Amino acid sequence: MENIKMENEMLKTKLQSYNTLNTFYHETRQEIASLSQQICMKDNVIADLKARLGRYEKTAVNLEGEEPLLFGPSKSLFENLCKEISKYKRKLHDVEKQSSQQLETCKLEIQQLQQVVREKDQEIGRITLRPQHEKDLEIQRLQRSLAERERAQATRAVLCSSLAEEADQLRAQLGATVGVCQELLRRLEAKKHEGGDPKESHTHPQKSGQHTESTDGAHLNRLVCELQEENKVLKQRVAYVESLNAKWQKYDMSREEYVKGLCQRLKETSPLPGLGKANPGLLQQEILRLNQQLEEKMLECSKMGRELEVRKRDKEHIQMLEHQVLTYVDDFKSERADRERAQSKIQDLEEEVMRLKLQLRAQDAKDAAGTCRAHTSCRKSAHQSETAEAPPRKTQDQPGKKRSSGQSTQASVRTERKGTTDLQCPRCLTSYGDDQTGEFLKHCTECANL
């Protein structure tokens, strides 16, 4: 029963966490609603801008002696609108991702809660159906396991005491070996000091004893090496024994805690026959409450699914509007390019007209100078030759005819050049007068669009 209470407390804590998740979910819903309102506001702004573009589309003001002024939306406006749309699109994508993640976590937690509720129902059923003698058997089994653990603890305590005694003996042996090693080192140092002060008078008798000293030194070195190795082995054994002792101590502490827990369980399970009649009602109430919370979570999941569908539809609508805006921007750019090309063609034609006018003026000046020279030459010939009047008259009549024919040809050239001064479309070659510049510009834009 204590385990069931603990698990119920754990479930309560989980429900508190679910409540916090629910609050987070409501906050995200509020944020989504605010974002949808902002999207609606942006859609209204886009519609307003589209209406403005429709009003200002293809409007121009023609001034005398200046280029026509075209009114239209600025490029920065479209760029800002596209940036805002992309920003809100990213926000919407992030919110959808968070909501989908929360939905998945809620579904997993609901499944876990359902599994826990089923397990609790099964456990409660087993507890209610279990007879009293089975409970007594369970208590006896726990008591036997406790006695076995106590016996194992006693044997481990004996082993630990024996290991501690062995460790003390090893420490004593280690101290004795350390003392022997120190004594041998002192002897070696004394012999080195004695052998380091030789006299010249004793060189000959000492040669015979050098061999014996060298053999003694080698023997002592071997002994020192053996003692050092034995010291290392003893240190390793001491470290191993200390590690074993620490492990046994940890095991004893954990075992004592486990035994205390078992005793506490036995004390708590001993009054079970009296409590078995009152607890099933509380357990049933807890199960009903958990089932209600589970149904609420399922309803919230269904609501979240519907909201996700609404968001998907809104997303599709936003994508459609973005596509429309992009197509409108492309059309505007193409129209602007066509207008610029038409304007450049108009400027080229105006320059050509000015050049032709200058050529006409120069040609008129040349023609006037030629006629004056012809008159002066005719007068001189009339004063010089009076006898031959008939042929010169014929000759004078011929220049007059030539002059009249030249003037007629010049007039025709002028009329042709005046005809060329009319505005003419470079594609379909339709001509307009100088006072029809507006119609000519509209015709050029229509031809460029076609």
TrEMBL record:
Lineage here is: Eukaryota, Metazoa, Chordata, Craniata, Vertebrata
Looking at the record, the residues that make up the CCHC NOA-type domain are: 417-449
Species whose genome carries this gene = Albula goreensis
Ranges in coiled-coil conformation: 46-123, 332-366
Query: What terms describe the molecular function in GO for this protein?
Result: K63-linked polyubiquitin modification-dependent protein binding; zinc ion binding
Report biased composition (Basic and acidic residues) as residue ranges: 192-203, 391-400
Q: Which biological process terms from the Gene Ontology are attached to this UniProt entry?
A: apoptotic process; cellular response to lipopolysaccharide; inflammatory response; positive regulation of canonical NF-kappaB signal transduction; regulation of transcription by RNA polymerase II; toll-like receptor 2 signaling pathway; toll-like receptor 3 signaling pathway
Give a short account of what the protein does. Inhibits NF-kappa-B activation by blocking the interaction of RIPK1 with its downstream effector NEMO/IKBKG. Forms a ternary complex with NFKB1 and MAP3K8 but appears to function upstream of MAP3K8 in the TLR4 signaling pathway that regulates MAP3K8 activation. Involved in activation of the MEK/ERK signaling pathway during innate immune response; this function seems to be stimulus- and cell type specific. Required for stability of MAP3K8. Involved in regulation of apoptosis in endothelial cells; promotes TEK agonist-stimulated endothelial survival.
An annotated GO cellular component of this protein is: cytoplasm
Outline the subunit composition.
Interacts with STK11/LKB1, TNFAIP3, IKBKG, NFKB1, MAP3K8, TEK, RIPK1, CHUK, IKBKB and SMARCD1. Interacts with polyubiquitin.
Q: Which InterPro entries match?
A: EABR, NEMO_ZF
Pfam families, per database record: EABR (PF12180)
Q: Which residues cross the membrane?
A: none
- Which residue ranges does the record annotate as region Disordered? 192-217, 374-421
- Compartment(s) of residence: Cytoplasm
Q: What is its main location?
A: cytoplasm
Q: Which UniProt keywords apply?
A: Apoptosis, Coiled coil, Cytoplasm, Inflammatory response, Metal-binding, Phosphoprotein, Transcription, Transcription regulation, Ubl conjugation, Zinc, Zinc-finger
- Gene3D superfamilies in the record, alphabetically? Nemo cc2-lz domain - 1d5 darpin complex
Q: What's the protein here called? A: TNFAIP3-interacting protein 2
